[in-house]
TrEMBL record:
Source taxonomy: Bacteria, Pseudomonadati, Pseudomonadota, Betaproteobacteria, Burkholderiales
InterPro entries, per the entry: NAD(P)-bd_dom_sf (IPR036291), Sc_DH/Rdtase_CS (IPR020904), SDR_fam (IPR002347), SDR_oxidoreductase (IPR051911)
Annotated source species: Achromobacter animicus
Gene from which this protein is expressed: hcaB_4
Family listed: Belongs to the short-chain dehydrogenases/reductases (SDR) family.
Classification via Pfam families: adh_short
The name this protein goes by in its record: 3-phenylpropionate-dihydrodiol/cinnamic acid-dihydrodiol dehydrogenase
Xref: SUPFAM superfamilies: NAD(P)-binding Rossmann-fold domains (SSF51735)
Keywords annotated in UniProt: Oxidoreductase
Organism domain of life: Bacteria
E.C. no: 1.3.1.87
Length: 271
């Protein structure tokens, strides 16, 4: 049985992205990967894999460049099966101190870059009635209680919301969609991972293993039933559970006020 797939991995220059690319190639898949420096990406992968690896220099905020990259991938390999919209960098600072350019740049990278890829690739997946899209959010896109990371968190929350909507649109077409929430991830230095930097400020000095995270993504792609929500890392899992418990407690505490603004049901009053 041929299990080879064609993967497109964006923002694969470091960390989880480049680790995933290397692992996919080792497993015999064909991979196109984008970076803002294709030559550096080729050097980072460190392999001569003509016919199986396509490094692409792409600014994800440039819609035309993204469409050319998707077209080039399909032309080189004959299609696209799995898309991984990578994480990207984050800008640190309190919201009121970040400039307009910094805030818009964060959304250009994390939100509009993802949307550019989705718009370019979905017609192909729709036509073939199948495929799998992984959007990499962050645990900070599920729980925003991290000082100094408001812009990054807001952008990742947007990724989470658009991914849930995409999943609803794609399901009838046989296209699978997964939303990934990595926690702190080792990537050489804290600045490469906003989650790791945020954890460091709270006393954490270790991050998750990118190799194990890449393995998890591949396993999810091969699973019979793909997860819509995938939390990666014990810290991510625990923080998500804490957030859910906190929301449940507030729902219970403020239930009467929440439901009190609804229209009065005359039948219930009569009863």
């Amino acid at each position: 049985m041929n299990t080879e797939k064609i993967w497109l991995v964006t923002d694969a220059s470091a960390g989880l992205g480049v680790t995933l690319v290397k692992m996919l190639l080792d497993h015999g898949h064909k991979v196109a990967a984008t970076s803002d420096d294709g030559d550096a990406l080729l050097e980072a992968v460190g392999a001569k894999l003509e016919g199986r690896f396509l490094p692409l220099t792409v600014n994800l905020a440039d819609e035309r460049a993204v469409r050319r990259a998707v077209d080039a991938t399909a032309a080189a390999f004959g299609g696209i099966d799995v898309v991984v919209n990578g994480a990207g960098q984050g800008v640190q600072g309190s919201l009121e101190r970040l400039s307009d350019a910094q805030l818009r740049g964060t959304f250009d990278t994390h939100v509009f870059g993802v949307l550019n890829v989705i718009r370019a690739v979905m017609p192909r997946l729709r036509a073939q009635r199948g495929g799998h899209v992984f959007n990499i959010s962050s645990i900070l896109g599920f729980d925003g209680r991290a000082p100094e990371w408001g812009a990054y968190s807001a952008a990742k929350f947007a990724v989470s919301g658009l991914t849930e909507s995409l999943a609803a649109d794609a399901a009838p077409l046989g296209i699978r969609v997964s939303l990934v929430y990595p926690g702190a991830m080792r990537a050489g230095d804290a600045q490469a991972s906003p989650e790791l930097a945020a954890r460091g400020e709270q006393g954490w000095d270790q991050g998750g293993d990118p190799v194990k995270a890449a393995q998890a993504l591949i396993q999810a792609a091969e699973a019979q039933y793909a997860p819509l929500h995938l939390f990666l890392g014990r810290d991510s899992f625990d923080q998500a559970r804490s957030k859910i418990q906190s929301v449940q407690q507030e729902l219970a505490r403020w239930r009467e006020m929440s439901v009190s603004i609804g229209a009065v049901d005359g039948r219930r009053l009569a009863a």
